[in-house]
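We now fix the convention by which a protein and its fold are recorded. Think of the row as the fold of the chain written in a discrete alphabet. Here is one such record, which you should read through line by line.
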Amino acid sequence: MANVLRYKDILHDGAQIHLTRATLTSQRPKSLHAHDFFEAFWVQNGQVRHHTPDRITTLHEGDLCCLQPGQTHALQGRGEHALVVSLCIHPAVITALADRHPDLNGHLFWADAPLVQHHRDIRQLATLNHAAVALERSDRSALQAEAFLLPLCAELTADQGPKSAPGWLNDACLAAKDPDVFRGGAAGFVALTGKAHPHVSRTMRKYYGQTPSDFVNSLRMAHAARALITDSDPISVIAADVGIPNMSHFHKLFRETHDLTPLQYRQSFQRQLVQPQI
């Protein structure tokens, strides 16, 4: 049976939110744990293996997860310098936010799934870290918890896709962020919807302004860009990992997306990458 972490053991002196920074070892966790609070965590540096009952997912720098009470999981570093930032959030804070902001229902902590994953790019991650430092220096009251959570939730729910788009399409676009899905290309994306390819293509153009192939390739190139900064794998390995083993095609797509070759991107952003002052 999974060990259960309880907010009463973490939140003290009236605090409604608690932030922890942890450097992870590469040792495989002996067991999973659950919790009776809402949790958010993001990968600040390096790579992390996220263990859940049915799978192991590799998370990269900037990946952020929202978990509901009862979700069992564990974290493991992959390589050196794997650092995560996690939040223990009192259930009352999450309930109050949804009561005042019904648009949050169905998203993030309020989704049907107990675990939701997003990604923050370098700029967004810097903003998130500045907010985290301010939270650490506060009294971590309900007011301060909401001051941190509301801007983040507003940004992340905006990532869910147009509200006017059909639910099946938004769900497929969200699910396609999983590497196991986007490796399959446009065909894999369309298969998620259960609809005919021409119908998916027309609907995608109407609500997202792009084709299924364009959408999937944008996810692939974003993933490749993260890997180029945080991994030391050869570019050919990264290309294969996103489902494009043809190096000529991979270089073409990457340059069209980022205006740099993969090697130029790696050299430029690895030099620029700095951790926030804490």
Notes: Residues 167-272 form a domain with the Arc Repressor Mutant, subunit A fold (CATH 1.10.10.60).
